[in-house]
Design goal:
The complex is a heterodimer of chains A (about 70) and B (about 500). By secondary structure, chain A is mostly helical. Chain A contains four helices and no strands. The chains are: A mainly alpha (about 70), B mainly alpha (about 500).
Chain lengths: ~70, ~500
Amino acid sequence: MYEWLKSIPLFWGKIIAVVLFAGIVIWAWFRPKEYIYKEAPDKRWWRDLRIWTTVLLALQIIIYLSF
Amino acid sequence: MEIGGIDLVIVIAYLAAIPFFGFYFKKYVKTEKDYFLAGKMLPWWVISMSIIGTNIGAYDYMGAAGGAYRFGIAQAHYEWIGAVPAIVLSALLFVPYYWKAGVYTVPEFLGKRYNTAVRVIEALLWGTFLACVLGVFFWAAGLMLNEYLGIPVELSLIITAVIVGIYTITGGLAAVAMTDVVQLLVMFIGGVALTVLGLWTVGGWSGLVDKIAPANPDHFKLFLPLDNPTYPWLGMIFGLALVLSPAWWCCHQAIIQRTLGARSEWDAKAGMMFAAFPKMFIPVLVVLPGLLALALNPNLAGPEMDKAFPWLIKNLLPTGLAGLVFAAFMAALISSVDSTLNSAATLWTRDIYQRFFVKKASDKHYLKVGRILTLVFVLWAILFAPITKKFPGIYVAMQTLLSIFQGPTFAITLLGIYWKRANQWGGLFGLLGGVSISASLFFFTDWSFLYIAWWSFVGALLITVIVSLLTKPDPVEKLEGLVYGLVIKDKSIQDALKKRAEIDQEV
C-alpha cells in the first residue's frame, strides 16, 4: 500500500489542493445571501464574505500552482 | 548577544507601553461578560488581528525558520493549506453557531449539544493544556529577556508576569484583544524590516533562489515526497489540511473566544475570516528568514538549524533594527501569553467553577473569580516555568497530547453542528473512542502524528454515527439553536436560546 502511494506523482498534491480550494469557493457561493450578511451594518458589496472567500482562495490557488 | 543603546531604548519603551495601553481598558469591565467576552463589543478587525496575534508565538519564529532552513518553503503549508481553508470553514460553518448559542467556551457549547461528561472532558483537556503551555511561554520569555537584555531569568519571569498580568487581570479580553492589535503591528513591522533587509543583502528573490536551489533543489517546492519525515505530501493534505488545521481553527478555545466577543454575528464571521489575510503573509515573517539564513550561512547543522532566526538577527541587523525585531519577537510571545491566560481563566471559571462549585452567584462574584484565577495562573506560570527547563520535551508532550484529542474533538463538533441525529451518547463514545484510537496508534506504531490525526478523526466520526443510530435521538428542543437546519428560523430559535439560558441560570 505504502509503496503504491509512493508511486503517485507529486503533482497530484497540487491537483488535490487546487480542487480543495476551488471546492470551498463554490460551496461558499451556495451560502444564502441573508446568511452571509446576517447582522451586517449594511449590505455593501465588500461585506459579502463570499467575495472574501474567493479572493483568499484564489491567492492560495496561485501560490500552490506557482511552487 | 545583548542589545544596547537605541535598541535597548526601543525594547524598554515597547515593554513599558504595552501594560499601560492594556490597563486603559479596565474601565470597560463591569461584568463577567465584559471580562471574558469584552462585553460582546469587539469589531471584526480587532478580532482578526487578535486571532493572529494569539496564533503566532515566539516558537513559530524559531521553529518555522528552522523548518524552512531544513526543508524549505514546504514549512509554509502550516500558514497556507494548513490554515486558510480551515479559517474560511470556521468563519462560515462553526463561528455562527457558537456565537448564536451565547456560550463563553467551546466545551460549554459541546456540553449543551451533547452532555456534561463531554463538556468536562474537553474543559479539563483544554484547561490543563493551556495552563502547562503558559509555563512554557513564560520560560521562553524569561530566556529571551535574559539572552538579549542580560536580566537574570528569575527576574525576567517576574517582569513578564507584571507586564502581562497588569492588563490581563484588570482588563480581560478587551485589553488582551486591543493589545494584540498593537503587537501584531509591531510583529509585522519588525518582521518585514528583517525580511526586506535580508532580501536586499542576498540580491532579491532571484538571488535567494540562485544561492539555495543548486544545493537544495526541493527547497522551493511545496509538496515533498512521502518519505520526507516532517512534510510528506499526503500527510499535509489529509492530516494537516483536513483534520488538524480545522480542529485548531474551529475548536481552539483561545482562537474562538475572540469571535464570541464579537458585537454581531457578521463581525464574528468576518473577524475570523479576515484573519486569513495576515495569516497568508506570516511566511514572510517566519519562513523567509529561514531561507535567508540558509543563503547567507549554509553551515548550520543539526539542532543549530533551529537557531537560524537568532543567527539572522545577530549577523544581519544594524543598530536600531535589532531592537525593533526583538520587540517583534517579544510581541509574538506576549500576545500568545495574554490570550492563553485569559482563555485558561475563562475555561476554569465557566466550565469547572461555575458548573461544579458555585452555580448561582452574582455577576460580580464570577468577575472576581475570573480575575483571581487569572492571577493564580500568572503565579502558577512563574512557578511552573523553571520546571519546563528540567523537562525540555514538555512542550512537545503537551502538543502531542493535544493532537491525540484534536481529531476526535473536531469529529464530534462537526457532527454536532451538522447532523441533528448525533446524540449525547454518540458524542461521548465518539470522543472516547477516537482518543483511544489515536492513543493506540501513538503508542503502538511509528506513524507520523499527521496520519494518526486523520485516522482518529475517521474513527471518531464512525463511532459517533454508529452509537447515535443505535441509541435514542435527543429531543428537538435540546438541539434548537445549536444544529444546522434548526437555526435558520430565527424567531423560534431566539426563543429556544432564551429559554435554555433561563434553564442554565436555574441549574
